[in-house]
Structures are given as C-alpha cells and as structure tokens.
Amino acid sequence: MALKINPADIEAMGLQAAKSKATQDQIINAVIGLIKEEGFSAASSSRIAKRAGVTWGAVQHHFGGKEEILEEVLQRSHLKFHEALSASRFTTGTAERRVAKYVDAAWFHYQGDEYMATMEILLATRGNGKASSDLSISRSRKAHLALARRIFHDSEASDRIFQEVIYTVHCMLTGLLIEIALEPQSFEPKPYLKRLKAQVSSMLYG
C-alpha cells in the first residue's frame, strides 16, 4: 500500500527547515559579529546566545556545542570562497586577466567578516581541537588545487607550482590585512596587489 503524504505536512516541513536555517544563520552571524568587534574571547557561550536572541539550549540543538559552531564558521568561509571563484567568468579571458580576477576575488573574500573571524578562530584554537585542524589551508589543499587548475586550465605548471601559487596568494593577502589593521590610515595595498598578480602570472606561465 502506497504511503500517502499530506501536502500540508510537506509545506510545514519546508517552513520548519527554513526557520531552522534562519536560526542557524543568526547564531553564526552572532559569532562572526562578536569576533569582528571584540576578538575571539568575546564569543563566549552566553554572549553568542544573547546576541543571536536564543537560549544556549537552542544553540546546542542546532550545532551541539561551541567547537561545532566555530567549525561551521570555518566551513562557511571556505565554501563561500570556493563558490565565488567557481563562477564561469573566472575561466574566461586571457591568462593575465584571469590572474587579475583570481587575486581580486581572493582579496575581496579575505577582507570579509567571515575570513577575519576564521583567522581569529584558527589562531586562538590552533592545536586544541577540530576547528583548528579540519579546515586549515593544508586540509583544503585538494579543493584549492582543483579550483586553481580549473581557472588556469592552460597553464602547464606542476601541482607543486600551483600549491606555491596558492600559498603565495594566501600569505601575501593575509599580510596585507595585518598591515591595514596596523596602519589603517596610511597603508595602500594596491601596489602590492599589482606585484602579487605579476608574481602569480610568472609562476604559472613563465
């Protein structure tokens, strides 16, 4: 006998899923906001719940605990970066133009609240749990490599060179963020971004 499903039940399930997603987003945004404004130490269990407008029990229901919330922040930042650079526009144009788009998009992501929170989390939890290891740059190596190879599909560079490109971009952009934090009024990143693009082009295309 076929199971009959009430359309109203399907609609209710959809609404519940949407409500659950909205609550999860509130919690994640609360964590990111606290870290952005006051640093990692501000993201305590009580303050996360208060800022999200829910009880800590509700937070645990959706994520399990603080470690899982932090890991979700890292996951979302990684996915946001990957999805942004997976757009077809990054695979078209001259090599020089693709390098420029790649660096500019990476720089835009690095300046975002999610990435800033990610860096704070990784620094504060290094060596102490899953959040500091599961989604580190080294653990995301295959995904980053596949993405770079898709964008620079006409490069004959080896995987080792591609990895060097990925780390070069990461280290340079992270360094620029630090300089901006130290000298927000006087530091100008544009010349360094231009040099980074030239370096990436040279590494990939000679």
UniProtKB/TrEMBL annotation:
Matching InterPro entries, A to Z? Answer: Homeodomain-like_sf, HTH-type_TetR-like_transc_reg, HTH_TetR
- From the UniProt annotation, give the residues forming the signal peptide: none
DNA-binding positions: 44-63
The UniProt record lists the keyword Endoplasmic reticulum: no
Lineage: superkingdom: Bacteria
Supply the Gene3D superfamilies for this chain.
Tetracycline Repressor, domain 2
Domain HTH tetR-type residues, every copy: 21-81
Q: Which SUPFAM superfamilies does the UniProt entry name for this protein?
A: Homeodomain-like (SSF46689)
Drop me one GO molecular function for this one.
DNA-binding transcription factor activity
Q: Which UniProt keywords apply?
A: DNA-binding, Transcription, Transcription regulation
Alphabetical list of PANTHER family matching this protein? HTH-TYPE TRANSCRIPTIONAL REGULATOR BETI (PTHR30055:SF234), HTH-TYPE TRANSCRIPTIONAL REGULATOR RUTR (PTHR30055)
Q: Under what name is this protein listed?
A: TetR/AcrR family transcriptional regulator
Which organism is this protein's natural source? Sediminihaliea albiluteola
